[in-house]
Design a protein that fits this description.
A: alpha+beta, 60s Ribosomal Protein L30, Chain: A, Phosphoribosyl-aminoimidazole Synthetase, Chain A, domain 2, five-stranded mixed sheet, B: alpha/beta, Rossmann fold, six-stranded mixed sheet, 15 helices, 11 strands, 36% helix
């Protein structure tokens, strides 16, 4: 029993780590310490999926996203439809009907033209389904080894149709928390085809445009308080961000959150938590409890959100935390992801 | 989902908890050995269901947590060699060495890759004949058979560019070290089900007899753990000290004999230093002479400085069940999963990380607290 202690503190990181892009705590720290302090303005500080701007009496939403997925083509999608859907969804989460998209390509020397064709065709189809034109673009080519096949940026503008502000600041104690469908399919699909971790399973990405169900909610007069798509960092990161901005406590029931058997099985085997796994076609909706039943009916009538369920509720408690009631009735905090989610040893 | 939901069934779990309530007359302290069990306990809030007198303390069974600092430094130094591809299980990557982690090394250019099996590392070696592929073999008896298999396979195929940095540890000697220490609080063990699946549980019989302590081989689901607690508490209340098997659906008394044979063929028992605990005799595995040429420590001989560990982190006390993570002054403030002072704050199986993520700060009842996320 000689040594009873642990290592010296390590210095704060002086390099970018992959976890800075993971959507969890380090991403938030990076945004706060570098970007927000440099670019500070009111639209940016709302920390929403997109900015809402006023132009001659029209409220416009603007958002941008850059896609770096590997592999470029995966079961259920490609980097192309992912990029179109992702930006359409960020606009939808602002309560905005997508008006137009731009596309910026960074291509790596040596990329097979066939792959580019496949990706572009997928973009065209996704844009058609979402009913949004790609109106401007840009192309750059970098030396072999300086890129990863394709990096793709899309920027979108949309017209805000939400009658009232949609965002964490509108969340109220008593709100119902709805989830639009089963979680984790995209993240597990990418993992299943990534180099070194291949496994087989009937799972494909959930990438899909989400404007249709959002529009249906507004058209039905549902009082939507907040929308958030569940991308990197999964359900947990989204709920934590909302709880922290809204200064409320969110509680969810583990048994009410839909997760498919395939995703659950893969997560159990790999030591991952489906609440942290990425999605590309799922979102959470905060509505007054009195609207929850009607909102669920509307969501379930749309194919992309047919699996919608009420997962939890919002409570008066300024702690800004998220808690889960487990399957066996115990309680725990659902924390934001720290670093990347890494598979465990045994 | 079959084979999972049965063991997480709400009413079955409640009934088992009530059975413990009926049996437990006095306070008892039990240690679950495996980090996977700790994870389930904290994640499902299982402690909320136990009588107040029953205390679960968390054992040393987190492979990431007990891997010595020098070994992590050695892995990092090996990974930084340009010819090397260093492969490891995922949660090893974030563990701090004396100055950096493998993830930091990766960010500064080292070729570090996550694999799910040592056989994947072997495949990488076949596919990259001009590189040296090193597998960082950490873990207990659970991961030893596959690691032994990879070396055995490499020998059979004469793969020259594969090697293994071995830091294997064995569970029973660590349990004995805990029982043998003067300040031991543990009155019964929930032994690690998956370790016993490989090794069986014969070797626990002399330990149970010598120290008069019940040892219940236990699974990893909430119902398994509660039944393990019940079986241990029944023995304690009766004044018995026996080895019992709760995890009979997976564990046989003799274990998995072919797996044991493969381990014995490739590895031999050696003294091993445990991070936070110190050196324990006969508590590790190293490659046998016949396979020593696959030993990365020999192949990439490097001097690694012995580093003085900080006095602040109480990982050693946590790993021996003497303190709960929240009893550490650095917990949740100077030590978080983003800035870990000690390894138990890193792995999902580490007790400190489990307590941090799931917000458990104090023992009593409904222990969800806000301080776990304060300041972030």
């Amino acid at each position: 029993m000689a040594i009873l202690s642990c290592p010296l503190p390590r210095p704060a990181t002086d390099r970018i780590l992959l976890a800075h892009g993971g959507g969890g705590r380090l991403t938030n720290q990076l945004i706060e310490s570098v970007f927000l302090s440099a670019f500070s303005n009111s639209a940016l500080e709302s920390r929403h999926d997109g900015a809402v701007l006023s132009a001659s009496g029209t409220r416009l939403a603007m958002t941008t996203d850059t896609y770096v997925v590997q592999p470029l083509i995966f079961p259920g999608g490609t980097i192309g439809d992912l990029a179109v859907n992702g930006t359409v969804n960020d606009l939808a989460m602002c309560g905005a009907r997508p008006l137009a998209l731009s596309a910026g390509f960074v291509l790596e020397e040596g990329l097979a033209m066939e792959i580019l064709h496949t990706v572009v065709a997928a973009m065209r189809e996704a844009a058609r389904v979402a009913n949004v034109p790609i109106v401007t673009g840009d192309t750059k080519v970098v030396d072999k080894g300086k890129g990863d096949g394709i990096f793709l940026n899309t920027t979108g503008i949309g017209v805000v149709v939400a009658p009232k502000p949609v965002g964490p600041e509108s969340v109220r104690p008593g709100d119902a928390v709805l989830v639009s469908g089963d979680l984790g399919a995209h993240g597990i699909t990418i993992l299943s085809v990534r180099d070194g971790l291949e496994f087989e399973g009937p799972v494909s990405s959930d990438t899909a445009p989400l404007w249709a169900p959002v529009q249906a909610l507004f058209e039905a007069g549902i009082e939507v308080h907040c929308l958030r798509d569940l991308t990197r960092g999964g359900l947990s990161s989204a709920l934590n961000e909302i709880a922290s901005v809204a200064r409320v406590r969110i509680t969810v029931e583990e048994t009410l959150i839909p997760v498919s058997d395939v995703v659950r099985g893969a997560c159990e085997l790999l030591g991952l938590d489906p609440f942290y796994v990425a999605n590309e076609g799922r979102f959470v909706i905060f509505v007054p409890e009195s609207d929850a039943g009607h909102a669920l009916e509307i969501l379930r009538s749309q194919s992309v959100s047919a699996g919608a369920a009420q997962a939890g509720t919002v409570h008066e408690d300024r702690s800004g935390i998220v808690t889960v009631r487990s399957r066996i009735g115990g309680h725990r905090v659902l924390d934001m992801l720290s670093g990347e989610q890494l598979p465990r040893i045994c | 989902m079959k084979f999972l939901d049965e063991y997480r069934n709400y009413s079955a779990v409640r009934q088992m908890a009530q059975a413990i309530q009926r049996v437990a007359k006095r306070p008892w302290t039990l240690m679950e050995v495996c980090g996977g069990q700790t994870y389930t306990i904290v994640k499902t809030g299982l402690q909320d269901l136990l009588p107040r007198g029953i205390t679960l303390v968390h054992g040393p069974g987190c492979p990431v947590c007990v891997t010595p600092l020098e070994m992590i430094d050695r892995a990092i130094a090996t990974a930084l060699r340009p010819e090397v591809i260093l492969c490891s299980f995922g949660d090893m990557l974030r563990v701090p060495g004396s100055t950096q982690s493998l993830l930091d090394a990766k960010a500064s250019g080292a070729d570090v890759r996550i694999v799910y099996s040592p056989l994947d590392a072997l495949q990488l070696a076949r596919a990259n004949p001009n590189r040296e592929v090193v597998f960082f073999a950490v873990g207990f008896e659970t991961t030893a058979p596959a690691n032994a298999m990879a070396v055995w396979q490499a020998e059979r195929e004469k793969i020259p560019n594969f090697s293994m940095l071995v830091s294997h540890v064995l569970v029973p000697p660590a349990m004995e070290a805990i029982l043998g220490s003067l300040d031991c609080r543990v009155q019964a063990f929930l032994a690690a089900g998956h370790v016993c699946m490989v090794m069986g549980y014969e070797e626990y019989v002399p330990i149970s007899r010598k120290y008069r302590v019940p040892i219940v081989v236990t699974g990893f689901e909430p119902l398994d753990l509660l039944e393990g607690v019940l079986m241990a508490v029944e023995q304690l209340e009766d004044g018995r000290a026996e080895v019992a098997n709760q995890y009979a659906r997976a564990v046989r008394r003799s274990g998995n004999l072919p797996a044991q044979e493969r381990i014995a063929e490739v590895f031999e028992v050696t003294p091993r230093a445990w991070r936070g605990i110190g050196e324990i005799p006969s508590s590790g595995l190293r490659l046998r002479e016949a396979y020593r040429r696959f030993d990365a420590e020999t192949r990439f001989a490097m001097d690694i400085d012995r580093v003085e560990e900080s006095r602040e982190c109480i990982a050693g006390l946590v790993l021996r069940g003497l303190r709960k993570p929240f009893e550490c002054p650095a917990f949740g403030t100077r030590c978080t999963p983003d800035t870990p002072l000690g390894a138990p704050m890193v792995s999902s199986e580490g007790a400190c990380a489990a307590y941090f993520h799931f917000g458990r700060r104090k023992e009593d009842g409904h222990s969800i607290v806000s301080t776990a996320t304060a300041g972030h």
